[in-house]
Specification:
Layout lengths: L42 H29 L5 E8 L3 E8 L7 E6 L13 H11 L2 E6 L10 H16 L4 E7 L1 H15 L8 E4 L13 H15 L16 H4 L5 E6 L5 H13 L4 E6 L13 H15 L3
Parallel strand pairs: 3-4, 3-5, 5-6, 6-7, 7-8
Antiparallel strand pairs: 1-2, 2-4
Helix pairs in contact: 2-8, 3-4
């Protein structure tokens, strides 16, 4: 399936070192708030989930980081840790086959806003780098529940600003998987609000565009989504377009750059992805939104799949017309 070509935005402060959001800095609060949702976890359950999450996160991150470091020995790319400003870190991934000096992709990993590192999604970043002959900067942004909304989005905006300052002549695209896709589209809204330059393109891999549970048919997924929402939002309205980009105003969407989105046809985020594709198309944005066979969320992490190869090939072709 292919599509070709809200609400009012907050008024931000001028660019500079000020925070991008008028509602103040990220809140470092106890993991004990719930949304106005009867299916959301109770307070005590949320606390237990938060404690278990920290332990699970450490184990998984260690395992995936070790595996990724082993895989990098033969995957055709070099990886370098990069410090962006005073407190942001990223992996810079460069294809050994060569890259075009003016091509940069800013990539945001997935993990439901509560898990994940650049190492976990490194295979996706490597494929983007090789397919597009570009350098990829994969950001290590702050995670909930320790750092709820808007911490991750502020890190995303600061990284975008850092890349623009360090590489003023480069063509910069942004891309993200799942929650990382959510942050990509939230960044587009912030840039539209501030009337700042947009990326040359936005790549969404199974992007999470509406942070509620209406699409989730299985009870287990609904429960997990509720816990992720409690962790990330901690009382902030889910209807905020910076949380649920699908709810952005038409005026904001009209400012979006060309968009390409891929997901599995049977996965739980397929509906909102297609809905965003239609909204982009209706507002004159060049967009390709395609569903691939299967039900795997962010199938691009499984490199042996034919649809993974097809997805990256189509992303490469899409961007080749925009660099």
């Amino acid at each position: 399936m292919e599509i070709s070509c809200g609400s009012e935005l907050r008024q931000g402060k001028p660019a500079g070192e000020q925070l991008l959001f008028p509602f103040g800095p990220p809140r470092y609060v106890q993991h004990d708030e719930t949304l106005d949702d009867p299916n959301a976890p109770h307070e005590e359950e949320a606390k237990v989930f938060g404690r278990g999450l920290r332990c699970t996160r450490r184990i998984l991150h260690c395992c995936f980081s070790t595996f990724s470091r082993m895989a990098m020995l033969g995957d055709g790319a070099t990886t370098t840790s990069t410090r962006m400003g005073s407190n942001l870190d990223a992996l810079m991934i460069v294809p050994k086959s060569g890259y075009e000096d003016n091509r940069i992709i800013m990539y945001l990993h997935g993990g439901g806003h509560i898990m994940g590192t650049p190492w976990v999604n490194r295979s996706i970043a490597v494929n983007l780098a090789k397919t597009c002959r570009a350098r990829v900067f994969s950001l290590s942004y702050r995670l909930a529940p320790e750092n709820p909304f808007p911490a991750a989005l502020e890190d995303t905006c600061k990284t975008w600003r850092w890349l623009r300052q360090q590489y003023p002549d480069a063509s910069i695209a942004i891309g993200g998987a799942s929650a990382g896709g959510n942050l990509c589209f939230a960044l587009l809204i912030v840039l539209a609000q501030r009337k700042e330059q947009q990326p040359i393109a936005c790549i969404g891999l199974s992007p999470w565009l509406k942070l509620d549970q209406t699409e989730f048919r299985r009870d287990g997924i609904k429960k997990l989504a509720a816990r992720q929402l409690v962790s990330y939002c901690q009382g902030h309205p889910v209807s905020d377009p910076l949380v649920s980009p699908l709810l952005a105003s038409d005026d904001a969407i009209k400012s979006f750059p060309p968009v390409i989105m891929h997901a599995s046809e049977q996965e739980f985020l397929a509906g909102s992805m297609i809905a965003m594709g239609k909204r982009c198309s209706d507002n004159g944005v060049k967009v390709e939104a395609e569903l691939f066979p299967g039900s795997t969320h962010v199938f691009q992490q499984t490199q042996r799949l034919q649809q993974t190869k097809d997805s990256f090939a189509k992303i490469g072709i899409f961007l080749s017309h925009l660099w």
